[in-house]
Write a structure and sequence with these properties.
CATH architecture of the largest domain: Up-down Bundle
Shape: elongated
Distance between the termini: 23 Å
Number of strands: 15
Helix content: 55-70%
Radius of gyration: 31 Å
Number of domains: 3
Number of helices: 13
CATH class of the largest domain: Mainly Alpha
Largest sheet: 4 strands, antiparallel
CATH topology of the largest domain: Multidrug efflux transporter AcrB transmembrane fold
Length: about 475
């Protein structure tokens, strides 16, 4: 073999070995039982570079959220708030262990969230529905506090839907005071002004061995937050400080000394609750409350049926194409069939490497890209046949056939790439998945249909040219 041909075969072998290597984690993951996979997902040990299954294949929860734009600050545009909300939601869900969650903007103020593998809507709502506004306020006592408590206690529904005092009631309280409810429905009189929020939080983690063995959430501020927290606690030694999450007082511990910048949220009953709080605090607060206006659950049974039907249809189609190519084009058809199998394996390997999510539209994209690869092989083989009919030697016919077929192959792939680019740019959710899968498939298809098959022919021409039949 020539030096150039040797390099080509080194590249092909590298692709084959690399593809098999990249698919091994996916094979190992889906070979495990559902129980073992669930345990690994809960502990965050789920492999990243595997082929994920989308909502329509795996089952899960779909939520449509509405951002309450009326609660936005004067400095945030709606577009910026939506983009920030999507980023925060993605961070929360990623920390929970749900990989490659499609989160897309819908219209002006809506966000669509698909959570594969989470079939409990309440679990999903608890995770992403929190505004996660963390505040620290000093609990007030004395005559004015007693008056505030008396006013609020004598009103049947003093709080609005967000847990804040209604405006007409707030006006009746002494200046500088407000009242919030605690988890146990106890009322707390607090400073109306919020001296410190969770904006400067650096980290938040579950501390399982809290008081009485109950879970707690330990938090830590960054450099600026530590200074403010130390000043607040130092100036209020002997008083109680309320730790407030989403307008609910979680706990109100006594300040015994100046605290340098770390603390704990206590009074939590369940480990899941502590975990959710830690996640939303780490991910940050949403720019405004979100309301769930639509939710759907896809059962895993439906997903399994979709996988079986999709795989069955794909396998039948692939087998038919392989048989047809080998019957019609004989030995050259076998070469094209081998390239087609390599195409499929390499495409799945690349999707696994990038941690892509496979959906039903994605399967359609794979099938379309394979069809484009078959089309490229047919164009090449028909061109080679034409050159042979003109009486050219086999080596020249093969070379000329590839040259003449390339223009048509390039044109057909280019137009499809452009269509995929527009689908990716303007589509959402499954449409984007289809576009990504199709684009990768077209790139791999050109490599296998042109580069790989040409290298096989070049090798056979130097070894056993009489074996080549077209």
């Amino acid at each position: 073999m020539s030096y150039k041909l040797t390099i080509k075969w080194i590249v092909i072998l590298f692709v084959i070995i690399g593809s098999v290597y990249l698919l091994l984690p996916t094979h190992e993951w889906y070979s495990q039982s559902d129980t073992d996979k669930a345990k690994l997902e809960q502990t965050g040990e789920r492999p990243k570079n595997i082929l994920n299954l989308g909502l329509d294949l795996r089952g899960g929860t779909y939520l449509l959220l509405e951002l309450d734009v009326s609660k936005l600050s004067k400095k945030e545009t709606v577009s910026e708030a939506i983009a920030r909300a999507i980023e925060i939601l993605r961070n929360r869900i990623d920390q929970y262990g749900v990989a490659e969650t499609p989160i897309t903007r819908q219209g002006d103020k809506w966000i669509a969230v698909q959570m594969p593998g989470i079939s409990n809507p309440e679990q999903a709502e608890a995770l992403i529905g929190k505004t996660a506004m963390l505040e620290f306020k000093i609990v007030k006592t004395g005559e004015n506090s007693a008056k505030a408590l008396e006013i609020v206690s004598n009103i049947e529904e003093p709080f609005d839907a967000d847990g804040l005092l209604k405006a007409n009631i707030q006006k009746k309280l002494p200046a500088g005071l407000t009242v919030l409810r605690g988890k146990d429905q106890e009322l707390y009189v607090l400073t109306k002004k919020t001296p410190i929020t969770g904006a400067n939080l650096e980290d938040a983690r579950v501390a399982p061995n809290g008081q009485y063995g109950l879970p707690e959430v330990a938090f830590r501020f960054d450099k600026a937050g530590k200074k403010d927290f130390a000043t607040l606690t130092g100036n209020n030694v002997g008083k109680n400080m309320a730790i407030i999450l989403d307008n609910v007082v979680q706990t109100a511990p006594r300040i015994n000394s100046r605290i340098p910048g770390e603390g704990r949220i206590t009074g939590l009953d369940m480990m899941d609750e502590a975990r959710h709080i830690a996640i939303v605090l780490r991910a940050g607060a949403l720019p405004a409350p979100v309301h769930i206006i639509e939710k759907r659950t896809v059962g895993p049974g439906l997903g399994e049926d979709s996988i079986k039907m999709g795989v069955k249809a794909s396998m039948y189609g692939l087998i038919f194409i392989l048989v047809f190519m080998m019957v019609y084009y004989r030995f050259s058809g076998a070469i094209a069939s081998g390239a087609l199998i390599l195409n499929l394996v390499t495409l799945l390997a690349l999707m696994a490497y990038f941690g892509a999510t496979l959906t039903l539209p994605g399967i359609a994209g794979i099938i379309l890209s394979l069809a484009m690869a078959v089309d490229a092989n047919v164009l090449i083989l028909e061109r080679i046949r034409e050159e042979k009919l003109l009486g050219k030697p086999l080596a020249m016919a093969i070379k000329t056939g590839y040259q003449k077929a390339w223009t048509a192959i390039f044109d057909s792939n280019l137009t499809t790439w452009l269509a995929a680019a527009f689908l990716f740019q303007f589509g959402s959710g499954p449409v984007k998945g289809f576009a990504v899968t199709l684009t990768l498939g077209l790139l791999v298809g050109v490599f296998t249909s042109v580069f790989v098959t040409k290298a096989v022919y070049d090798f056979l021409l130097t070894a056993n040219p009489e074996d080549i039949s077209i």
